[in-house]
Predict the 3D structure of the following.
Amino acid sequence: MYNEINGNLNGEGKRFAVVVGRFNSLISERLLEGALDCFVRHGGKEENLTVVRVPGSFEIPFAAQKLAQSGKYDGVVCLGAVIRGSTPHFDYVAAEAAKGVAHAAFNSGLPVIFGVLTTDSIEQAIERAGTKAGNKGWDAMLSAIEMADIYKQLG
Ligand code: INI
């Protein structure tokens, strides 16, 4: 019989930092609300959360890496909204945010979770920020809680 490791979904006693991009804040603030709600509903305490706001998604990885390496947290949740619109800026910002968050996770040895929406339209972003497709900020926090426990077990 194989051994199996699964993360529990208990936020009690866990400390997380949440990095939020202010660009498209109509969306990113809803993602933050979802993340807070998820944390508290899983036994976490608001005083164990630190929220850091940065200008946009491009800057998220820079703050995320510093927070992850500070030794103060069990994980970092990254929240932002990159919306394609009609500018090629989208591709650069979205790609760097995704790559940067992955780098922050590898460099720090902590779970750094990618809760940055990358959508073609504002409508798609709204759907994922607390309407018909749920709240991806909520999902990102749940992943952070689960991964923090998995990291603890993996040692
Ligand atoms: N930042 C976002 O978070 N979402 C976007 O959709 C976006 N667009 O499309 O431009 C965006 N740009 C700003 C970027 O993240 C940086 O803050 C800026 O380029 C300064 O470095």
